[in-house]
Predict the structure.
Amino acid sequence: MVAVGEPNPDLLLEFDDVLLRRGRNTLVGPVDWRVAPGERWVVLGPNGAGKTSLLRIAAAELHPTAGEAHLLGETLGHTDVSELRPRIGLSSAALALRVPGEESVADLVVSAAYAVLGRWREDYDEIDHERAREMLDAVGAGHLADRTYGTLSEGERKRVLIARSLMTDPELLLLDEPAAGLDLGGREDLVARLAELAADDAAPGIVLITHHVEEIPPGFTHALLLREGRAVAQGPLEQAITAENLSEAFHQPISLTVEHGRFFARRKSSHQR
Ligand SMILES: Nc1ncnc2c1ncn2[C@@H]1O[C@H](COP(=O)(O)OP(=O)(O)OP(=O)(O)O)[C@@H](O)[C@H]1O
């Protein structure tokens, strides 16, 4: 029996009535949300729904204004976030923008082990270099190790940043719109890689943010649909991703098809309504 207010040690993430306000605006919440080990979540919602804000709390980058956020058995506001953050892998557009163009891919990945951006020391342990190579291989980017970040395509950058976020062997992996800006081939390639990661029992718990149901990799298990900071639906994927819930989240009539574990959505034409 876990006392109220105490983190449940069996959960990776536990949000109780989490609320995030900036000025008069409520960006998130109140939201209750639980992520257990082995689960692969997608967080879906329209622009401005609060997805990135929610993820930044999950990354221990922001504290909730109200409610309680427990991460990996620790409670935000009652723990040293500098010890918590290395246990959480994060790949986001904000991080991508901070990477210097001249940074080598191998250094960018290996430096994650030291929670720094940019290679700040000359010598990393060989074991770190080996792991960096393994992580790059795991996302199909092993051949890019000697390139500089600035020379990579958008799709290659996304894969390298995911390799970096896996470097510390995190318990929770947070991916903020990893397929944004990718062309069709790049998206499909990334979705396939993420499906492989999702199927890997040794992989951490995963939370992936997207606007598009087409980007949900097969093997993902749960979904949280957000609208105006609140959960429209959450739970096992097939129960949460429905035409009805998507219509509510995106505030328009949506029709949905599912083929071989992939979802496809479009707006209903007027004669379908
Ligand atoms: N510091 C801030 N002060 C006030 N409002 C903010 C602040 N940061 C974000 N917002 C607003 O909060 C809302 C949620 O933003 P957030 O980036 O979390 O949404 P999102 O679902 O990730 O959006 P998108 O899909 O467009 O990236 C938006 O309306 C945004 O303008």
Observations:
- The longest strand covers residues 25-35.
- The pocket of adenosine-5'-triphosphate is lined by residues 22-23, 25, 27, 45, 47-53, 211 (CB under 6 Å).
- Residues 197 and 203 are 6 Å apart (CA to CA).
- The radius of gyration is 19 Å.
